[in-house]
Specification:
Largest sheet: 7 strands, parallel
Distance between the termini: 35 Å
CATH topology of the largest domain: TIM Barrel
Number of strands: 13
Helix content: 40-55%
Radius of gyration: 23 Å
Number of helices: 11
Oligomer: single chain
Low-confidence stretches: none
Order of helices and strands: HHEEHEEEHEHEEHHEHEHEHEHE
CATH class of the largest domain: Alpha Beta
Structural class: alpha/beta
CATH architecture of the largest domain: Alpha-Beta Barrel
Shape: elongated
Mean pLDDT: 96
Number of domains: 2
């Protein structure tokens, strides 16, 4: 049984018909070997070195003299991220698949790092969401961690998050929370999404552990934080964790965090990050 990464990379190579690359088979001698270099054309944070290498291994590249940076390392434009020798045909056949993985994942890590840096000195975490590319979630969420971020639920079995549509389908916040408590075990916390002060107060009165403040502007976030702490002071209970979500940009992130929320979830770092500009150079050995 192949491990999940091998299965994924093999499927990507098969999608590209890498083993039937008519150009490479027609032009490159089977016995030829090459020096291969992965070069950064812009600064960033590395992620995806494992699928990058696995693509060449699955093409029977016979890799030798492998040298590479590690995932999570910051690098400057012009640096060599990896160098190795390999069979020329395999290097050419796997090139685009390998590059698609590492450019995409390094783009996520780099964008995450920018968000994290914007919060320097503040006690607030950047979290990725489930807004990921189908079947690439493991790699994309790992890229977020490589960039210094954290992750929300990995999948639907990792926690109870009652959102707008759950509330509507259940008949209201109270009904949804009561049903969740009845069906969850005692170690499972509950998060509820709220859109206004009325819903916030209802969630507070129900004593949920986490409250998601959805699509609120800065004044609304500040007031929500004030309401939560005032409620905690009056009740004598520890305040719930507060998560800000929706319309989060790099320009707004610090202002959002300065309102006093604990977590900011950012869907764009996984679904909209630009691939990093990297280049693979192949020279005859």
């Amino acid at each position: 049984m192949q491990d999940p990464l091998t299965q994924l990379v093999r499927a990507a190579l098969e999608e590209d018909h890498a083993w039937k690359d008519i150009t490479t088979l027609a032009t490159v001698d089977a016995e030829r070997r090459s020096n291969v270099k992965l070069v950064a054309k812009q600064s960033g944070v590395l992620s995806g070195m494992h699928p990058f290498r696995r693509a060449f291994e699955l093409m029977d590249a016979e890799i030798e003299t492998w040298e590479a940076l590690h995932d999570g390392q910051h690098f400057e434009k012009g640096i060599i991220l990896a160098r190795f020798t390999a069979r020329s045909r395999a290097a050419l056949m796997a090139e685009r698949t390998a590059m698609n993985f590492i450019q995409h994942l390094s783009g996520i890590a780099t964008e995450t790092s920018a968000f994290v840096s914007a919060l320097d000195g503040l006690p607030c975490r950047i979290c990725a969401t489930r807004k990921t590319t189908p079947l690439l979630r493991d790699l994309e969420k790992a890229a977020v961690v490589h960039g210094g971020g954290a992750n929300h639920r990995h999948s639907l079995i990792d926690g109870i998050l009652i959102k707008e549509n759950h509330i509507a389908a259940s008949g209201g916040i109270r009904a949804a929370v009561e049903r969740a408590r009845h069906n969850a075990h005692h170690l499972m916390g509950i998060e509820v999404e709220v859109r206004n002060y009325e819903e916030l107060q209802e969630a507070l009165n129900l004593g949920v552990q986490i409250i998601m403040l959805d699509n609120m502007d800065i004044p609304e976030l500040k007031e929500s934080v004030r309401i939560v702490h005032e409620h905690a002071a009056k009740s004598g209970h520890h305040p719930p964790q507060l998560e800000a979500s929706g319309n989060v940009t790099l320009k707004r992130i610090r202002s959002i965090a300065e309102t006093g929320v604990n977590i900011v979830s950012v869907g764009s770092i996984t679904h909209s990050s630009m691939s990093l500009d990297l280049s693979l150079l192949i020279d005859h050995d």
